[in-house]
Design goal:
Bound molecules: pyridoxal-5'-phosphate
Number of domains: 2
Number of strands: 12
Structural class: alpha/beta
CATH topology of the largest domain: Aspartate Aminotransferase, domain 2
CATH superfamily of the largest domain: Type I PLP-dependent aspartate aminotransferase-like (Major domain)
CATH architecture of the largest domain: 3-Layer(aba) Sandwich
Shape: globular
Largest sheet: 7 strands, mixed
Distance between the termini: 57 Å
CATH class of the largest domain: Alpha Beta
């Protein structure tokens, strides 16, 4: 069945006890047993909970995966996956990875003796084999990257990684399974922040991992219960509700982002627009091949850092806030906000970069608000 249908029905049979059409919020920690060890498949909610199971089944289906495992946050999913790696082993990672993932890798795992190599997206696509060795356990990819919207060729990277015996993990948060299916492109594990497009309404924190590898899946289910970074049933229910409209939301996010990127491209006070949907973007062709559409995130370079900081304070409709992927449009300066943790990294984001999470309001209203904020910017130096 098609994506839209699976998003609404998979894992979500009407409740057998009551006929409820919507999966109930099973707000319970424990489950009665008829006799020792005899129960209906649930014994304790850290191990399993029916609302969480419905989410895991639905989202696995959307990613084309056999197995789905939900977590309390995107970073909860990431740290659990990092338990597939041992101290002394290496992770090769795209260098403009999400700031929180970089902070975890560099400040939590590196001091414990894990090794990390950071490569530009273009190198992960084209020369990955040159950077792998027998100690490389994971190749960690994000595409499009946050916040510079670089594109990694997942298929090419997976071929190189597999030849060297490494697992390929793709953070699919920016694209969502509606736009891109990394497992079909050769990845071994897909990871998500549910907080973003999948929840879609800026009202929860959650994470998710999916895989078709039975050994990896068994280990991740074991780690889910053993490390304990599990989501509560209400948050799972909110994500299930968000998934039902994922396809229609993503279509609108993409249309609006395209319109905003085109408007900014022609604006004299914008130095450069970073959007994979623009034909001059270096990753445009790969993105066109591996994605259904180009997503709802747009970044651009303002005239200066001060220009960027002043601009984001002037918009009215675009809310100045971290995070992304909700129905409402958000604007931020990554170097000062979401990516402050990469400030001392060799690949720190440009100080004048502005990141837009383009929502599903009227594109005309969004453009008018940006236009007004840009008009009042100080004049460019001659
Ligand atoms: C937000 C985000 C994360 C972390 O997810 P949380 O739910 O905030 O823990 C990881 N990767 C990307 C690309 C993100 O945008």
């Amino acid at each position: 069945m098609d994506f839209e249908t699976r998003a609404i029905h998979d894992g979500q049979e009407p409740d057998s006890a009551t006929g409820a059409v919507t999966v109930p919020i099973y707000q319970t920690s424990t489950y009665v047993q008829e006799e020792v060890g005899v129960h209906k498949g649930y014994d304790y909610s850290r191990v399993a909970n029916p609302t969480r199971t419905a989410l895991q089944v639905c989202l696995a289906s959307l990613e084309g995966a056999e197995h789905g495992i939900a977590f309390s946050s995107g970073l909860g999913a990431t740290t659990t996956i990092m338990h597939l790696v041992n101290p002394g082993e290496r992770v090769v990672c795209v260098n403009d990875v999400y700031g929180g993932v970089y902070r975890m890798f560099s400040q939590v795992y590196e001091p414990k003796g894990y090794e990390f190599t950071y490569l530009p997206a273009a190198d992960v696509s084209a020369n990955l084999a040159d950077h792998l060795d027998e100690r490389t356990r994971i190749v960690w990819i994000e595409t499009p990257t946050n916040p510079t919207l670089n594109i990694v060729d997942v298929h090419a990277a997976a071929e190189a990684a597999h030849a060297a015996g490494a697992l390929v993990v793709v953070d699919n948060t920016f694209a969502t399974p509606y736009l891109q299916q990394p497992l079909a492109l050769g990845a071994d594990v897909v990871v998500h922040s549910l907080t973003k497009y999948l929840g879609g309404h800026s009202d929860l924190i959650g994470g998710f991992a999916a895989t078709n590898d039975p050994t990896v899946a068994e280990r991740l289910f074991f780690l889910q219960k053993s490390l304990g970074a599990v989501p509560g049933p209400f948050d799972c229910w909110l994500v299930l509700r968000g998934l039902k409209t994922l396809a229609v939301r993503m279509r609108q996010h993409c249309d609006n982002a395209r319109a905003v990127a085109e408007f900014l491209s022609g604006h004299p006070r914008v130095e450069r627009v970073l959007y994979p949907g623009l034909p001059d973007h270096p990753g445009h062709d790969v993105a066109a091949r591996q994605m259904r559409d180009f997503g709802g995130m747009v970044s651009f370079l303002a005239e200066s850092e001060e220009g960027a900081v002043e601009l984001v304070a002037r918009t009215k409709l675009w809310l100045l806030a971290e995070s992304l992927g909700g129905v409402e449009s958000l604007i931020e300066v990554p170097a000062r906000m979401t990516h402050a943790s990469t400030a001392n990294a060799p690949f720190a984001v440009p100080r004048n970069l502005v990141r837009l999470s383009v929502g599903i309001e009227s594109a005309d209203d969004l453009i008018a608000d940006l236009e007004a904020a840009l008009v009042r910017a100080p004049a460019a130096r001659a």
